[in-house]
């Protein structure tokens, strides 16, 4: 059996609202060693493929990143796609199940609707919130609708209803972009919602456009007036087309929402019935900023039940959700005193067991409701979100029950790709914490934290978590949208990538001393590269190429030496444990870290130029990379691999980024181990060293020490957080101390995903899955078992199919099962056997003699750069993997199981 499945357009099965389609699919088979010989793709105007507009064939095994290159697509038109594959010149699959994509408005001239804003503006609350307005339009249809599309956007965030039904389950549309450059609009199929008489209602709140943003307490970041743009296009049964667009005929109303703000919460008064207050007013706003929705929508991805209700030490009634989450609680109004309710959100309890919210700083995080007492209805907010585990309840009676509440978990809707489970429950809890941290901080942009008066797209946090996140979730479109804002904001400041994206700070963070810093700005290069590697998507490299280049050129212009970055304000190894008392800055020298990242990004950019065939840039930036490495060694490396910064992070960066001479790497690794042992086998790294320290130890032959760091459960360690009740990752290793006190109230998040970057090492080392070629066209399956875990299962949904690795220890016997999807290959490295010849005999039987063995070393594509000789035909990101005593071989697709005795240490 050979079959084409999982046909996707822009990572979705049937999609409305795109103008640049890119296709991918899986090849599935119950046979082994299957590879695509050629593909055949068709795009048609009809589901029966009678009117084909693109009929394309190509001899290649590629099934991802296939760009549409047919005739110009028409605006607001549906197209159908199908694919078939040749396995050999004689064997051809059936056509895949077709999918469709539908283009949206392509040109600003196609908008006949006008931007409208409210005639009446009300201000409420002690922080001068603008009350959300409701824009309404009633209309009749002379004939039955056979197709209807709503194209809609807002300056603010909107909820839309048609004839009393929600248009979609999306939240916070049109989404957070830099509104000065790009305002997204959405495209919805509303055909089945229409009647002969109709009412469309759209509520618009302040959102990111004009609500509070940043810890400075500023509003009106992008404008002081919220607005709406909507165009409803209806094809009727009689052949006519009716267009309902926003204009001055739309009625303005207010409804029960008094105010709603992301940081401070929402006020809802059911006694304020919907009423007319004026007419909407047309106003001018640039239509050229409008772009189709680029990233996934925020949705209610999970609904959870609370763990309990209890009285804290101060007598407060507190709801415990059992999980630090992002969203809000929905409640049933059946146990209230007088209908005046207040729900206050917080992440943790203090050392006395009291509800605690001081770490939220200026964010009130309170939802208030004035309701008809005990009306039995369910209520929830609309235009806010909170990061919390605990909710302080006021206005409820003693009879209130946990069953009266639900936890509404919000996140950008992304497919979960990784399933990772081990025989150690504490490691499983750590994995759960990593996943929940990513869910909560992926709310339309990659944020630093979801609870306090911040929730911004810090660039370092994003690039630090990106490799782990790309394994856990399908983040291609999510990061693509965010990187477009990075590019726009970067070009404002001559190539310097900002601290946060969208950039609302404009230098505020560094008091105007600098508009960027190393590792933060390097997100401009690292994030596109990680997305390319994870999904094999060259398109993101093409789109971000100018941004990547501008970042390197910006650093190159800084200071007097173009091969060092020794200027500007550097945050360095932020929150490193080797810092001075009460300091945020780690002990690693700022210019050391900056130059290390400068080299790393330059090497990645040179490789990007090679991949895209830009050989002139490849040659120029390859030479630049070599010179930066030489300058790094000349300024920061002494004799015997001693570094000017004698810190764990300094050695980690030098080794991971391949900045040392080959003959110095072994001694540098020994020095890193010495530093770890000086800390009683603990890390003291911050933002820059933590993501890589276990990777480096494993790659340098100290895998047992990497496992020790993972299994430490005292401060500082990952399991310290787990053992102290964490359900997400903490900002600080000791956000809450052993005695229950807090590291700080000023900067102390309990959902801050940077240290969740350990996930990348866990999946590769414990789970045993790594990439050998971008998009997992070739996979490395190389589990490194440890008796402290006993077993592990790791399953990864790749662009080509499902890869999995399972292993289980039984004394000194190991059982390993590997699954390699069709149309891919795997490089398998099995832990050292007691009897190598016996294992090889088993491999020959299991693989039917198709195993191609490797002795010594093998070349593989990785994230790191090495100081070796290159030619223009050789990848700058190749590294040598030392197979050592492992039994290594390459094999095609199939399911392979091995059972043998391990060599005793």
Automatic annotation (TrEMBL):
Domain of life assignment: Bacteria
Organism this protein belongs to: Faecalicatena faecalis
Bacterial alpha-L-rhamnosidase N-terminal domain location: 145-274
Alphabetized GO MF terms: hydrolase activity
Ranges for domain Alpha-L-rhamnosidase concanavalin-like: 314-410
Keyword Ribosomal protein included in the entry's annotation: no
The name this protein goes by in its record: Glycoside hydrolase family 78 protein
Domain Alpha-L-rhamnosidase C-terminal residues, every copy: 768-838
Keywords assigned by UniProt, alphabetized: Hydrolase
Residues annotated as domain Alpha-L-rhamnosidase six-hairpin glycosidase: 416-766
